[in-house]
C-alpha cells in the first residue's frame, strides 16, 4: 500500500475519511454542513471509539464518499491515530475505493501521531490471500493508496524513519504465524527470514540439529526428535549500536507445530498449534523492523525452531534429558515443550554473547489465557526495572503486558525425584511454574523477562490494527522498548 503525506487534499477521485473525536470533527467544517449533519444524526453517529458513518455528499463540485471514523472524545493523539487509520481501512479496504484520503486538519496531531495513522492503516490492511484462489472480486482489497493530510510537519519523515519499518516487521511476523505447518517448519522459517533480511544488514545464521547435538542441547532436541523436520536455532544479529557493546538478547519459542507429542493434544482446535511459533515470529519481525529503521542498538535474537510430533522416535513421558546447561530434566509431559526449547536457546545465547538482558517470548501456556484472556500477555521478571520498562513499552505500543508473580514456593513445585527438575508443576499456577522453569536457566546477574503471549499471537476477532488472525504481537513492543531504553 502506497502512503503519502502531501500538504493539502489532492484532487480527483477518492474516499474522504473525516476523523471524529467525539463531537469534534473539524475537517467536516468545509462540507455543506446541513445535509451531512442530518445524515450523521440519522445514523446516530456520535464519534465514539469504533463508530463509523458514511455519507455521499458534495465536496467542491464532485459527489464523494465520505466516511466518518469515531475515535472517542477523550483519546490522546496516539490512541486516536490507531483508531482512525485502522477504522478507515476496516471500513474501506474492500469497498471498491482505490484511494483513501484521511484529513486530520484541526486535530492538532503532531508528525508522529499523523505517521501513526499510516501505521495503523497499513497494519489493518494486512491480509494473506495466497491460498484463496476463488476469491470473488467483491472480497478483494481495493485500496492501494492512503493519503494523510493535516498532520504536523515531518509526518513523512516519521513514517519513513520509524513506522514503515515497524509495519514491515509486523508483516513478516504475521506471514510466518499464518502459514500452515506444512509450509513453515524450522528450515523454511529460516529461509523466509533470510529472504526478508536480504539487503537490510541484519545478520542471519542458523544451526542445524547436528550442530546443536554437538553443543549438548538435549532439551531442545528431545522435543524435535519425534519429527522428520530437522530442528534449527536461528541467530539474528543487528549491530547498530556502539561497537563492541554487548547486545541485548531476545529469545523466541518457535514450535512450528505443537501436537503435544506423545502427551498428545485433543483433536478439536489442534490446527491452532501452527502458530505455536508466535514468539519466534514476533522476535524475527522485530529484528527486521529494527534493521530496516537502522536502530542504534546492538541486539541478538535467538529463535528455537522445532516441530513437536508423536512418533516411534518421539520422547516419552518420564524420559530424562540433559540440557546444554548441564541441568537434567524429567519430561513428565511432552506437551510442555516450549520451556525445553527456551532452556537451551537461553543457555546458548548466554554462552555465546554474554548479554546482560534477556527477554523471551513464547506462546507457552494455556493457563495464561485463563488468567489474562486475550487483552494482555503475561510478563514475568524478577527485575523490577526491566519489568517496568517493558510494561511501559507495552502501554505505549499497544502490545499490552500484565505482570505476574514469581517466587521460591512456585519454584519448589518443579523439583523432580529423579532429575534436577521436571517440566511441569501442578495445574494451578501453570504459567508461573513454566516461568520458574525458564528462570532456572538464566545466569545470575542477567536481567531476564519472560512474556507468555499464548493469548496474543492470534485473534479470533478483529481490532484496530489487525483483522482476525495473526496479530504481529511483540514487534511494536520490542521496537518501543529499544527506542525508549537502548537508543539514547
Ligand atoms: N503451545 C502450548 C500452549 C498454548 C495453548 C498456546 C493454547 C496457545 C494456545 C504449550 O506448548 C502447551 O501445550 N502447554 C501446556 C502445558 C501443560 C502440559 C503443563 C498447556 O498449557 O496445557
Ligand atoms: Mn505444548
Ligand atoms: Zn507449545
Automatic annotation (TrEMBL):
Pfam families: Peptidase_M17 (PF00883), Peptidase_M17_N (PF02789). GO terms for cellular component: cytoplasm. Transmembrane segments: none annotated. It is an enzyme of class 3 (hydrolase). Its EC number is 3.4.11.1, 3.4.11.10. GO terms for biological process: proteolysis. This is Probable cytosol aminopeptidase. It comes from the Bacteria. Keywords: Aminopeptidase, Cytoplasm, Hydrolase, Manganese, Metal-binding, Protease. It catalyses: Release of an N-terminal amino acid, preferentially leucine, but not glutamic or aspartic acids; Release of an N-terminal amino acid, Xaa-|-Yaa-, in which Xaa is preferably Leu, but may be other amino acids including Pro although not Arg or Lys, and Yaa may be Pro. Amino acid amides and methyl esters are also readily hydrolyzed, but rates on arylamides are exceedingly low. It is found in: Cytoplasm. Belongs to the peptidase M17 family. Binds 2 manganese ions per subunit. Mn(2+) 2 binds at residues 253, 258, 276, 337. Gene3D superfamilies: Leucine Aminopeptidase, subunit E, domain 1 (3.40.220.10), Zn peptidases (3.40.630.10). Mn(2+) 1 binds at residues 258, 335, 337. Presumably involved in the processing and regular turnover of intracellular proteins. Catalyzes the removal of unsubstituted N-terminal amino acids from various peptides. InterPro entries: Leucine_aapep/pepB, Macro_dom-like, Peptidase_M17_C, Peptidase_M17_leu_NH2_pept, Peptidase_M17_N.
Amino acid at each position: 500500500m502506497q502512503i503519502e503525506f502531501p500538504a493539502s487534499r489532492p484532487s480527483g477521485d477518492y474516499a474522504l475519511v473525516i476523523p471524529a473525536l467525539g463531537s469534534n470533527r473539524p475537517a467536516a467544517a468545509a462540507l455543506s454542513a446541513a445535509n451531512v449533519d442530518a445524515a450523521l444524526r440519522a445514523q446516530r453517529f456520535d464519534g465514539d471509539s469504533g463508530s463509523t458513518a458514511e455519507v455521499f455528499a458534495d465536496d467542491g463540485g464532485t459527489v464523494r464518499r465520505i466516511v466518518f471514523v469515531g475515535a472517542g472524545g477523550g483519546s490522546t493523539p496516539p490512541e486516536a491515530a490507531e483508531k482512525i487509520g485502522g477504522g478507515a481501512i476496516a471500513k474501506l479496504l474492500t469497498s471498491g475505493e482505490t484511494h483513501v484520503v484521511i484529513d486530520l486538519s484541526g486535530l492538532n496531531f503532531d508528525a508522529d501521531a499523523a505517521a501513526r495513522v499510516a501505521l495503523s492503516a497499513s497494519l489493518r490492511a494486512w491480509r494473506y490471500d495466497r491460498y484463496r484462489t476463488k476469491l470473488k472480486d467483491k472480497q478483494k482489497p481495493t485500496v492501494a493508496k492512503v493519503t494523510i493530510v493535516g498532520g504536523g510537519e515531518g509526518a513523512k519523515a516519521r513514517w519513513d524513519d520509524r513506522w514503515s519499518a515497524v509495519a514491515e516487521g509486523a508483516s513478516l511476523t504475521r506471514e510466518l504465524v499464518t502459514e500452515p505447518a506444512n509450509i513453515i517448519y524450522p528450515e523454511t522459517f529460516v529461509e523466509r527470514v533470510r529472504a526478508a533480511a536480504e539487503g537490510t544488514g541484519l545478520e542471519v545464521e542458523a544451526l542445524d540439529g547436528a550442530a546443536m547435538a554437538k553443543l549438548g542441547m538435549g532439551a531442545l532436541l528431545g522435543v524435535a526428535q519425534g519429527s522428520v523436520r530437522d530442528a534449527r536455532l536461528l541467530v539474528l544479529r543487528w549491530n547498530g549500536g556502539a561497537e563492541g557493546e554487548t547486545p541485548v538478547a531476545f529469545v523466541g519459542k518457535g514450535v512450528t507445530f505443537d501436537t503435544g507429542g506423545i502427551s498428545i493434544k485433543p483433536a478439536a482446535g489442534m490446527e491452532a498449534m501452527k502458530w505455536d511459533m508466535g514468539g519466534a515470529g514476533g522476535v524475527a519481525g522485530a529484528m527486521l523492523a529494527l534493521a530496516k529503521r537502522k536502530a542504534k542498538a546492538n541486539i541478538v535474537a535467538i529463535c528455537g525452531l522445532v516441530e513437536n510430533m508423536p512418533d516411534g522416535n518421539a520422547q516419552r513421558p518420564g524420559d530424562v534429558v540433559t540440557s546444554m546447561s548441564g541441568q537434567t530434566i524429567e519430561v513428565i509431559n511432552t506437551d510442555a515443550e516450549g520451556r525445553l526449547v527456551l532452556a537451551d536457546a537461553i543457555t546458548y545465547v548466554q554462552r555465546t554473547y554474554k548479554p546482560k538482558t534477556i527477554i523471551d517470548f513464547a506462546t507457552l501456556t494455556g493457563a495464561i489465557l485463563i488468567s489474562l484472556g486475550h487483552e494482555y500477555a503475561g510478563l514475568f521478571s524478577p527485575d523490577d526495572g526491566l519489568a517496568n520498562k517493558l510494561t511501559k513499552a507495552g502501554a505505549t505500543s499497544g502490545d499490552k503486558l500484565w505482570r505476574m508473580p514469581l517466587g521460591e514456593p512456585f519454584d519448589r513445585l518443579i523439583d523432580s525425584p529423579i532429575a534436577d527438575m521436571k517440566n511441569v508443576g501442578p495445574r494451578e499456577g501453570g504459567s508461573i511454574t513454566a516461568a520458574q522453569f525458564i528462570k532456572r536457566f538464566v545466569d545470575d546477574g542477567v536481567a531476564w523477562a519472560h512474556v507468555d503471549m499464548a493469548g496474543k499471537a492470534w485473534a479470533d476477532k478483529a481490532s484496530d490494527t489487525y483483522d482476525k488472525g495473526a496479530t504481529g504481537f511483540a514487534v511494536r513492543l520490542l521496537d518501543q522498548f529499544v527506542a525508549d531504553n537502548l537508543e539514547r
